[in-house]
Design goal:
six-stranded antiparallel beta sheet; mainly beta; Jelly Rolls; five-stranded antiparallel beta sheet; 135 residues; 1 helix
Amino acid sequence: MSPATRFVTEENKIVEHLPWGPHEWLCRPDLVEAQLLQLVRVNMPPGQGHAFHRHPTMEEIIYVVSGTCEQWVDQERKILRVGDVAHIPMDMVHGSYNVGDDTLVLLAILSPAKFEGPALIDVSTEEPWASLRGI
C-alpha cells in the first residue's frame, strides 16, 4: 500500500500478533503519511497483559473500547472501563492487564510516529515492577 493513502480499512490494516493479543495498526508511517501519530487497536484476551514497559521517545493515550483494564501509570493503579482514558507521559513505566472475563479492546494513540531508538523497553522483570502487582 502506498503511504499516501488517506484511508485505512479492514483490508489494509496491519495486524501484528503479540503475546498479549493481536494489534491492529490503523495509523503509522508505513500506512499513511503520519509523522506525529500512531493508532493501534489491541484485542487482549482475558488474563493477558502488556507487562510493565516504557516508550523512551513517545507519549501515549489508552482508551478503553470494551472490557475491564487494570491500568498502571508509574506506580499508580486504576481500573478502567468503557470510555475511560489513561495518559502516559514520555518514558514513564506503565502496564495494561485484562482483569475481566471478556476480551479487552483498547485504542492506543502514540506520538510521535517517527523517532530514533527503541519503541519499547520492557522493565517487567525489574523491581519494583516485577512484584508490584503481587501475583
